């Protein structure tokens, strides 16, 4: 009989009357990479939360090396050899890589931290697992990819046997993803067991041995990856056939609707955007690809008037709009689906109806002589909720009560209902489920097909390549290249994003 | 959801009030006083006859207005501790106007005094709002400092400009400038109850409408709930902060003006900041910043304060026991999270039981 490192048997987790996990069982062997596939909200994180000691199952047992365990907190899980690499890194930016790795588990020599010993040990481990890290660099100075490797090293250093990776590829470039896959294989080859949470099918095919699919808290199937097609995995995950293609009509793209010229933006004394030029035509989706932190956020903030610009012009329909107030810019026809849905796009405690008028409440017919017409706000809200299929109890429900996908639909509904000439969409589908992704993509394409311009900023290369008519690549505040998405692979795009020029 | 939002909103203050009274009772028992007798005296002393009722209602006025002022700034996300200073400035402004323009027709004299009081209070908080909006200065610090500036400036002004030599008080304002009329005195058995009460109640409803129906009120709420989202949506955040702070001071200033014209009839040199400014914050907290709730919270506090005076009249219990009750209530409101957690846990337990029973079937 094969020995399992981890066994979860009949795990059920209830939150109140809601079953987040319903009788899920999985096993993990030594040296195996197990993918955990499911949409957002399917219950993946809940399941892993129980394995890493954050949550306690309502019923069911967890066995490690054949012994039943009950973990009260994450510390106990760590001591039992379970290492979690979170989606959001838990590192101290001002500390060096070495300090971050040993933090909480420092080797002591006469009461002082023995850095030499720690460094030697970590260097040895890094070689063994092909982890490229610079021990002396400060965490705030290193790339996202390296931060992740630091997180992985933290787990290795604590002698974890089971590694849980929570959507590890979300913020990485294709090259970094490739490197991560190598590390995963090296870990498995050393006999470590790995659980890999994701909703990206390609990565599962590339690296996983088996795959557990969960949907709405229930286990749908456990399959051997090599014997299963991507389409079949997608279908299991969503529960119905998925239409991954988009319907792009031919549009007239002869007119420039939006222009950014020689734009420079300074933020906290640093030049975040350097002499940038950008154009969007009618009926065109321009994708802005780039690694997070290369000036995308500043570009959007500058266009929408949230950030002062240093120099340059921004033109919409031959009207210069730089240095205008945010409200004016929105009124002349720029809509924006912001990156941070919960903190910027919505005011969570306000009702759905109030959030839907967040950008238009000050105008007639909603505001008359300083008074708001709540009857109209709520009536309009009801109509919009119906039109955009926002799943909710009532228009007077606080928007905080909605699921992530439906919150995003509220924003999309508000921005599109204003009929903007240019729609800016920043990571419009991050963290929403496939159903909502399909819907939001459809709406963005609809804008384009109606002859409006769309500026799509996204870290998801697939999304950019799928939707865009033209893709520009941003690196260190500049546009470093432009590609045709129809004949560019995500690998080539990745090279550009890393700042390399394509060979002529 | 087991509780509707309204029940939930009411549960915490009610539990806090009951807990506060229980603490008071325990203390009285420990020190050998009779809690039942004292609470009875408290009730009679505050609401038992027209005179006490008049006093209690009059005492509500500045509590309601300073509480409203605190609530407005708090909704915008600011902790305006400047209530006492703004109240003082309002009091000062009203008395100065009433003394200097005593020849104006009555209606103009009264509105002019009220308005200049409110305006002076507004200017006082505007300073803090302006500094906050444009320089990011903490409004907590500036309002505390402005409290002291107000206190000592007014003391200086009274001694040098208003009071006759050797006196520590301004002269009284003209009888016709007072909000306390013969008619009201007659029906309330010579209490200090005055027309300001109706102005205060009206103001409460105006502020309720402001928050729930107007564009500006919506902006104030939005900025208070999420500044980044408001800025993204095009709200002029700086202007909204200043409006909220200005309004906050106007209300506290109005409270001071009414107290000056209705209760005191003059203004005197004072050693310390008026407590009413701080008590207003407590009232607002107990009412969870709901304007309508503020009426009831102010009634409770006012009754406790007025009734507390008679506790020591009818027995040898020190009236400070009432301060302990008030402080305990605020303490319990402050730790409401404990109650909330307890309520939620109870609810979860009941739900589990229900579910288990359902599963057994």
TrEMBL record, chain A:
Molecular function as annotated in GO: ATP binding; ATP hydrolysis activity
Topology in the lipid bilayer: Peripheral membrane protein
Gene3D superfamilies per the UniProt record, alphabetical: P-loop containing nucleotide triphosphate hydrolases
Pfam families given in the database record: ABC_tran (PF00005)
Coiled coil: none
Keywords from the named record: ATP-binding, Cell membrane, Membrane, Nucleotide-binding, Repeat, Translocase, Transport
Gene Ontology annotations for the cellular component aspect, listed alphabetically: plasma membrane
SUPFAM superfamilies in alphabetical order: P-loop containing nucleoside triphosphate hydrolases
Alphabetical list of CDD domains matching this protein: ABC_Carb_Monos_I, ABC_Carb_Monos_II
Ranges of residues in domain ABC transporter: 6-241, 258-501
Family annotation (PROSITE patterns): ABC_TRANSPORTER_1, ABC_TRANSPORTER_2
Record's keyword annotation contains Protease: no
Subcellular location: Cell membrane
PANTHER family named in the record: CARBOHYDRATE TRANSPORT ATP-BINDING PROTEIN MG119-RELATED, GUANOSINE IMPORT ATP-BINDING PROTEIN NUPO
Protein's name in the database: ABC transporter ATP-binding protein
Source organism of this protein record: Liquorilactobacillus capillatus DSM 19910
From TrEMBL, chain B:
Keywords: Cell membrane, Membrane, Transmembrane, Transmembrane helix
InterPro entries linked: ABC_transp_permease
Subcellular locations according to the entry: Cell membrane
Membrane-spanning residues: 12-33, 60-81, 88-108, 114-133, 140-158, 193-211, 240-258, 294-315, 321-344
GO cellular component entries: plasma membrane
Membrane topology category: Multi-pass membrane protein
GO terms assigned for molecular function: transmembrane transporter activity
Name by which UniProt lists this protein: ABC transporter permease protein
Organism expressing this protein natively: Liquorilactobacillus capillatus DSM 19910
């Amino acid at each position: 009989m094969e020995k399992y490192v981890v066994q979860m048997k009949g795990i059920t987790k209830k939150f109140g009357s809601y079953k987040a996990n319903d009788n899920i069982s999985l096993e993990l062997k030594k040296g195996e990479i197990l993918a955990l596939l499911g949409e957002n909200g399917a219950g993946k994180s809940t399941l892993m939360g129980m394995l890493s000691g954050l949550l306690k199952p309502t019923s069911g047992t967890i066995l490690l090396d054949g012994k039943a365990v009950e973990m009260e907190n994450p510390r106990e899980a760590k001591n039992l050899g379970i290492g979690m690499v979170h989606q959001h890194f838990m590192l101290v930016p001002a500390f060096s890589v070495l300090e971050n790795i040993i933090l909480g588990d420092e080797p002591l020599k006469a009461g002082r931290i023995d850095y030499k010993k720690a460094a030697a040990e970590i260097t040895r481990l890094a070689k063994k697992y092909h982890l490229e890290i610079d021990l002396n660099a400060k965490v705030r100075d290193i790339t996202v990819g390296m931060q992740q490797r630091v997180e992985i090293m933290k787990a290795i250093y604590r002698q974890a046997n089971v590694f849980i990776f929570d959507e590890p590829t979300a913020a990485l470039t294709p090259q970094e993803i490739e490197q991560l896959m190598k590390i995963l294989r090296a870990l498995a080859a050393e006999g470590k067991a790995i659980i890999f949470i994701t909703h990206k099918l390609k990565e599962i095919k590339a690296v996983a041995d088996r795959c557990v699919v969960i949907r709405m808290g229930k286990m749908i199937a456990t399959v051997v990856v090599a014997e299963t097609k991507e389409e079949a995995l997608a279908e299991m995950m969503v529960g119905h056939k998925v239409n991954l293609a988009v319907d792009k009509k031919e549009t007239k793209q002869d007119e420039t609707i939006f222009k950014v010229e020689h734009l420079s933006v300074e933020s906290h004394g640093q030049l975040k955007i350097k002499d940038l030029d950008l154009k969007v035509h009618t009926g065109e989706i321009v994708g802005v690809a780039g690694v997070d932190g290369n000036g995308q956020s500043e570009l959007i903030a500058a266009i929408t008037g949230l950030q002062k610009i240093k120099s340059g012009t921004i033109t919409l329909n031959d009207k210069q709009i730089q240095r205008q107030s945010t409200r004016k810019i929105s009124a002349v026809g720029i809509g924006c689906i912001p990156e941070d849905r919960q903190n910027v796009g919505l005011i969570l405690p306000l009702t759905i109806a109030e959030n839907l008028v967040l950008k238009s409440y000050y105008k007639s017919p909603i505001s008359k002589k300083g008074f708001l017409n709540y009857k109209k706000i709520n009536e309009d809200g009801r109509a919009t909720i119906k039109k955009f299929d926002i799943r909710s109890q009532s228009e007077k429900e606080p928007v905080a009560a909605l699921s992530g996908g439906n919150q995003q639909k509220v924003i999309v509904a508000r921005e599109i209902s204003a009929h903007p000439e240019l729609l800016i969409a920043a990571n419009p589908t991050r963290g929403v489920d496939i159903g909502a992704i399909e819907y939001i993509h459809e709406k963005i394409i609809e804008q384009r097909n109606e002859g409006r311009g769309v500026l799509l900023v996204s870290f998801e290369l697939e999304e950019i390549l799928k939707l865009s008519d033209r893709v520009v690549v941003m690196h260190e505040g500049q546009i470093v290249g432009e590609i045709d998405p129809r004949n560019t692979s995500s690998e080539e795009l990745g090279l550009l994003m890393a700042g390399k020029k394509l060979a002529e | 959801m087991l509780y509707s939002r309204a029940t939930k909103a009411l549960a915490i203050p009610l539990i806090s009030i009951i807990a506060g009274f229980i603490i008071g009772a325990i203390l009285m028992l420990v020190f050998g006083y009779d809690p039942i007798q004292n609470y009875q005296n408290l009730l009679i002393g505050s609401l038992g006859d027209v005179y006490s009722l008049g006093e209690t209602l009059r005492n509500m006025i500045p509590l309601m207005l300073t509480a409203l002022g605190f609530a407005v700034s708090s909704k915008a996300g600011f902790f305006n501790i400047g209530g006492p200073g703004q109240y003082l400035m309002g009091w000062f402004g009203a008395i100065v106007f009433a003394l200097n323009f005593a020849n104006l027709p009555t209606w103009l004299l009264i509105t002019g005094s009220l308005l200049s009081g409110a305006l002076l209070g507004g200017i006082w908080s505007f300073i803090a709002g302006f500094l906050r909006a444009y320089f990011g200065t903490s409004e907590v610090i500036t309002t505390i400092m402005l409290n002291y500036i107000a206190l000592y400036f007014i003391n200086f002004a009274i001694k040098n400009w208003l009071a006759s030599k050797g006196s520590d008080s301004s002269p009284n304002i003209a009888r016709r400038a007072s909000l306390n009329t013969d008619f009201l005195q007659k029906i309330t058995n010579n209490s200090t109850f005055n027309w300001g009460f109706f102005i205060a109640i009206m103001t409460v409803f105006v502020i309720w409408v402001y928050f729930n129906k107007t564009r500006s009120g919506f902006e104030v709420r939005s900025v208070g709930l999420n500044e980044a989202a408001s800025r993204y949506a095009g709200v002029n955040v700086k202007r909204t902060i200043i409006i909220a702070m200005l309004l906050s001071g106007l209300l506290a200033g109005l409270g001071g003006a009414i107290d000056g014209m209705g209760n005191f009839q003059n203004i005197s040199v004072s050693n310390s900041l008026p407590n009413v400014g701080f008590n207003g914050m407590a009232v607002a907290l107990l009412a969870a910043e709901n304007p309508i709730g503020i009426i009831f919270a102010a009634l409770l506090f006012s009754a406790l304060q007025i009734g507390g005076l008679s506790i020591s009249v009818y027995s040898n219990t020190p009236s400070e026991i009432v301060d302990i009750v008030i402080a305990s209530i605020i303490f319990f409101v402050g730790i409401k999270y404990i109650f909330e957690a307890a309520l939620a846990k109870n609810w979860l337990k009941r739900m589990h039981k229900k579910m288990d029973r359902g599963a057994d079937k």
